[in-house]
Write a structure and sequence with these properties.
The protein is globular. The chain is built from 8 helices and 21 strands. Strand 6 and strand 7 form a beta hairpin. Helix 1 packs across helix 2. The strands form 6 sheets. A 5-stranded mixed beta sheet has the order 2-3-9-4-5, with helices on one face. A 5-stranded mixed beta sheet has the order 12-13-20-14-15, covered by helices on one side. Strands 6-7-8 form a 3-stranded antiparallel beta sheet, covered by helices on one side. The chain has a single domain, classed as 2-Layer Sandwich (lpxc deacetylase, domain 1), CATH 3.30.1700.10. The chain is 23% helix and 31% strand. It has 304 residues and is α+β, with helices and mostly antiparallel strands.
Amino acid sequence: MQTTLRHATTFKGTGLHSGRPAVMTIAPAVAGHGIVFHRSDVANGTLPARWDLVDRTPLCSRLVNEQGVSVSTVEHVMAALAGCGIHNALITLDGPEVPILDGSALPFVRQLINAGRKELDHPLQAIEILKPVQIDIGDAFARLEPADRLEISFSIDFDEAAIGRQTRSMSLQNGAFVRELCDSRTFCRKGDVDAMRQQGLALGGTMRNAVVFEGDHVLSPGGLRHRDEPVRHKMLDALGDLALAGRPILGRYVGHKSGHAMTNTLLRRLYDQGDAWRLVTLNEHQQSKLPGAGILAADISAVA
């Protein structure tokens, strides 16, 4: 069955890159609606959360419609919706960027669970991966391969001693996203922050909505939420970017040094290769393996 929210929920904050204040509401929607963003501050502001509307940039996932209207930094809220098993919602915001909040998906997840989930009398289809599809750029790669549920495996390698090499693999069924990934924050190196601000970017970034590293030091107050928080956040981003496929994915995502642009390029290649995937209507057993199946409010207590 497809799902939506029982009640609308509202978020207030600033955009990570624009620094502009924003108010965003996620409201219920009918079956078949999908996830759709709507800019209330401009004309022609409707943007379906869809892979082919992504303007591929390294810093975030940015949607742009045919009229040139954009919504930036959609990946964390998309991860929260996928991780909570919400298939239909209307997201209304009054500016060009989703609020960054604490830099993770936890604030979104907490309010989505509190808003409740409603089943809709309509079957749910998923994208089943039939054979591997891969994108390579230098020593980085992103791959989708067959699996009977969504799994993510990710590895990163940074010169900063406080990050270093990190690898993590997991199945996202049974609320694993809520318990193990959703509170992991976006991260950056101090030198990158300085460079971005010189270019007029990361204007809304602070030590409280991103983990900032310098050498072997964590500069953000309170340190890390997890020893391997950076690679967990990359997995969170990957889930949000994969959610832009428009349907749940049954398959394994493997990423090494990959990011938003590579994951979107991977989705584009997947859709170009018609023999690499097929649409399947999920039965009850298959649906029980999706990321949002079986989550409980108690799962939040593990990370709140």
